[in-house]
Amino acid sequence: MKAHIVRIGNSRGIRLPKTLIQEAQLEDEVELQAEPGRILISKPSRPRAGWADAARRMREQGEDHLIDQPMPTRFDKEEWKWR
């Protein structure tokens, strides 16, 4: 499908047919990425998407341990009091 780039105020844009947007399953917000010769339009990625599944897999594989051992601080040694 071809489209014309049109002037929109000081910017330029294209009109996307409703059926194309529906077919791509896009909603009100998209991410744009420029590459040589093309502009990619995609659904926005959710921050931390997939982290829960990754943590679950790490736990199942026994890989969820701390990389470095905790180091006590001056606060831990001098100021912290258990009640």
Attribute tags:
83 residues, Pemi-like Protein 1, Chain: D, two-stranded antiparallel sheet, 3 helices, 4 strands, 27% helix
- Overall tally of domains: 1
Per CATH, the architecture is Ribbon
Please tally the helical runs, counting DSSP H or I stretches of 4 or more residues: 3
Order of helices and strands: EEHEEHH
**Level-1 CATH class name:** Mainly Beta
Largest sheet data: 2 strands, antiparallel
Distance between the terminal alpha carbons, to the nearest Å?
70 Å
Rg over CA atoms, rounded to whole Å, is 25 Å
Question: Can you describe this structure?
Answer:
The structure is a single chain. The protein is an alpha+beta fold and 83 residues long. It has a single domain (1-62), classed as Pemi-like Protein 1, Chain: D (Ribbon), CATH 2.10.260. The protein has three helices and four strands; from the N terminus they run ββαββαα. A two-stranded antiparallel sheet has the order 1-2. It has a two-stranded antiparallel ribbon with strand order 3-4. The longest helix is centred in the last third of the chain and has 10 residues, at 51-60. The termini are far apart.
How do the helices and strands line up, and which of them pair or pack?
Blueprint: E1 6-8, E2 11-13, H1 18-23, E3 31-35, E4 38-42, H2 51-60, H3 74-79
Antiparallel strand pairs: 1-2, 3-4
Short characterization:
The protein has helices at 18-23, 51-60, 74-79; strands spanning 6-8, 11-13, 31-35, 38-42.
